[in-house]
Specification:
The chain has 3 helices and 6 strands. By secondary structure, it is α+β, with helices and mostly antiparallel strands. α1 (3-9) crosses α3 (39-50).
């Protein structure tokens, strides 16, 4: 997988209370990914970018919320989220990532 596709697949970490708890307790990290990304592409991108060994990947599509605005009803974009479980002893440090 070329470097350009790695950055297209992984759009960034998803930081939330649940994601932080998963990272601390289970070695599982949450990423916002491209809507057309496959589990295999996500696995290869994380392994290549962070130099870790991925055990499994679970994905889910998040539906955008409908919000009321001054101009009527609006809708946030749909997006895809990936839960990446690392092998035992592996760790991702986002402050150190290139």
């Amino acid at each position: 997988m070329n470097q350009e596709r790695v950055f297209q697949v992984l759009q960034g970490p998803h930081i939330s209370e649940k994601a932080t708890l998963l990272a601390e307790t289970q070695g599982q990290y949450v990423f916002k990914v491209s809507k057309d990304a496959t589990k295999l592409e996500i696995k290869k991108a994380v392994e290549q970018l962070f130099e870790v060994k991925v055990k499994s990947v679970a994905t889910l599509n998040v539906k955008g919320k409908t919000k009321r605005t001054a101009r009527g009803m609006g809708k946030r974009a749909d997006w895809k989220k990936a839960y990446v479980r690392l092998e035992q002893g592996q760790d991702i440090d986002f402050a150190d990532a290139e």
